[in-house]
Amino acid sequence: xxxxxxxxxxxxxxxxxxxxxxxxxxxxxxxxxxxxxxxxxxxxxxxxxxxxxxxxxxxxxxxxxxxxxxxxxxxxxxxxxxxxxxxxxxxxxxxxxxxxxxxxxxxxxxxxxxxxxxxxxxxxxxxxxxxxxxxxxxxxxxxxxxxxxxxxxxxxxxxxxxxxxxxxxxxxxxxxxxxxxxxxxxxxxxxxxxxxxxxxxxxxxxxxxxxxxxxxxxxxxxxxxxxxxxxxxxxxxxxxxxxxxxxxxxxxxxxxxxxxxxxxxxxxxxxxxxxxxxxxxxxxxxxx
Length: 288
Fold this sequence. Notes:
By secondary structure, this protein is α/β, with parallel strands linked by helices. 28% of the residues lie in helices and 16% in strands.
């Protein structure tokens, strides 16, 4: 056991994506630390001891995006550094160097800051409310309550696709507070998305993960490696982690004229790299 862990969250449907990502962390990222898979009780992908992967099964039977709240649970106090990755990322650089660089910063909670800086928390809530709920206009009183309870409601937020957490900086009741907010404002977030709830509670603690560490895949296209003071870009960043998301996810087969077809730094077709990593999982994580 080391002092650093990469955490991936997956149910049965997302298990292949988690396996491909973990294999990629070693094959493309040369990761030397631990792994932890957060999965529901009915998901039995392998025996943890056999694969050398820690398995954490959150309490309760509900499974939603908000299972990510448990990244702030006491379970993760056994490590000094926790790097969380959504399954729809690709690794294109050395992860040990990334964690070493972040470990030199003050202990805290770091969220991806690259592609959410022009979206306020209010807009984030309204977006998912309109997409999955009855819409923000149907319960304006909830938004009045959110603004009154959280003065930063109209400020830009962060993305929870990549997180770097120092467990020592996490209050012991964080999971309970996150769940309380989620329950009280469920009508405005029926899909139980995690990101906007985490931003509400943790906003004053959050520190940015800049483009030096991770970014939205399109921002690392050769044409976007530019000086951009508005986004805080110098132009010479070499992000280790690229986030693809949903329709652009690495497992989605695309044509050469589509976005997210090619990872430019690795010069690899994304869905081919995904499939190669998945096929390599058992050899990368052999039975001990």
